Amino acid sequence: MVLFNEFSTVPSLLRNVVENIHKPEETFLIHKKNTEWEEISFGKTLEHADAVATFFLDKGIVKGDRMGLMIENSPEYVYYDQGIQQIGAINVSIYPTLSEHEVEYIINDSGIRAILIGNPFLYKKIIKIAGNCRQLQYIIPVFAEYQKIALPEDMRTEVIPFSELLETPVSDENSSEITRLRTALRPSDISSLIYTSGTTGTPKGVMLSHYNFVENVRACLEQITVINETDTFLSFLPLSHVFERTATYHVCCAQGCKIAYAQSLELLAKNMGEIKPTVMSCVPRLLERIHDKAIKSGTAEGGLKAKIFLWALETGQEYRRQKEAGKNPGIILSGKKAIAEKLVFSKIKEKTGGRLKFMLSGGAALPKNVGEFFGNLGIKVLEGFGLTETSPVMAVTEYDRQVYGTVGRVIPGIEIGIQNIETKEILSIQTHETFKEDFECEEGEIIVRGHCVMQGYFNKPAETAEAIDKNDWFHTGDIGRFYRGNLQITDRLKNMIVNAYGKNVYPTPVENIYLKSLKIDQLFLIGDKREYLTAFIIPNKENLQEEFKLPESFFQKPELFIEDKEIVEWIGKDIKKLSNDLAKFERIKNFKIKRNPFSIEDGEMTPTLKAKRKVIEKKYAANIDEMYTESVEAD
């Protein structure tokens, strides 16, 4: 177990591992080099970090300077981050998917002096805007082929290969200076600026201190006690996002776990089989896809195989419910569960590598039925909740106490309040210590205060004051309540739809009902100030192609929406069926099927794959109006 104290900082965590948990020669990082997995030790990681630190000290980088990273998850990210953090510089990680304009804004707003670049595509993006970035002095590509890419004639920014940083000699004098600077760091010092992707408005730089990160890790490890130094995490969510940074990278730095980097999302399934991880962070969309493919694979052939699959799921559900109720499943049910495990569950688990203790889902709400599905298989999925501004974790599921449809118990050391949206009365304040399994309260805005709350928005005091009130409560903008002692998220305050009759509709739970259909991949609900709800639907491409034998060219047609009558009726059957689970004012009365998904590139989605409601509603205003001028079927 890591030793936390009042002087702990992000770079001190990894040093502590080498001093108290692992020998320097033991494996820390694992990545695919050519066709083989390469292991990198804790000692080699720290050597590279010291070389990076020495290089930047020679270049005049000082405490508080902002240093950029625009790179995929990799060992190079860790070397650079550990190197700059131990001399007091600040990590500014930028989403690789952002546009040139957004990247330029972040570089200038934060005053980045050097930026680490991961691939030729990103390198071209950076050199194109470098002339507009006043304080940017160094561009540092990690790939050797950068010299083949022509630079703009007027570019003054210096390009230095990352290999040169790693080859920087570290003298005894350099080492002593790095140690002095690292030990002089205060927990209150800023560790990172993370720019919120935001569904509206200009990105804001969230200032997170070493204390924010270290306390968040400490609290999470106290709540999820099964993580230890023997674990292997598979990392694939972007380190530019606070969730992966804390839940994988910082946790592993603190606890001495191994980190293996997936090659890509497309190769994730293959990498899981090769690495055999014990823990991985993920997003609900990935779990939904695994769920959909498992259901489809298990039932596609029909007949006996489908009957066995469905019987196994029912058996798993019954067994899970007995265990969660604290009851003994008994000999007969336990026997049936063992058969289900052998015939069905073990085959699904093999595809994950067969060693998973749990997966941690965050970034968005996990549909209850998907969480229950994994529970029925015996694969534990813990849910967490938080924001960039809260470091990020505010609540997370306990390993041995799960309530599906909730995001778990309040973590130690903070307070979470539920505030009435209209009257501003605080309806309830809960802490880790006040947890009661039968506690419930009314719905309202979720507010929080304590060690997880950011230091503020960089150079934006007015926005900071708007987000954090005079009593130190940070207002999340999320709607929720406490249910059976756990926090339950309803929706985003800004997403709330108020129909023409004054009825409040929270889109997320309604969308999740319709997303139970295997025919639907995404759903965007519309209806603010309208008489009824409509939706844009993105179909599951694989299922749609299979059902109607569609060629790839079908999805490359210029028409934005699919109007084929048979396809509309095919989707419509599921919409009508699933509408029965909703109140009349929550039911979709009309919809359009979008040929291709909303995208980050078109400005319709944030890098964390949240729909930009205002952008979409403005961009497709005419299409939305059509859904309210067409005749619709009455209930």
UniProtKB/TrEMBL annotation:
Transmembrane segments: none annotated. GO terms for molecular function: ATP binding; long-chain fatty acid-CoA ligase activity. InterPro entries: AMP-binding_CS, AMP-dep_synth/lig_dom, ANL_N_sf. Keywords: ATP-binding, Nucleotide-binding. One of its GO terms (cellular component) is membrane. The lineage of its organism: Bacteria, Pseudomonadati, Bacteroidota, Sphingobacteriia, Sphingobacteriales. Pfam families: AMP-binding (PF00501), AMP-binding_C_3 (PF23562). This is Long-chain acyl-CoA synthetase. CDD domains: VL_LC_FACS_like (cd05907). Residues 23-458 form the AMP-dependent synthetase/ligase domain.
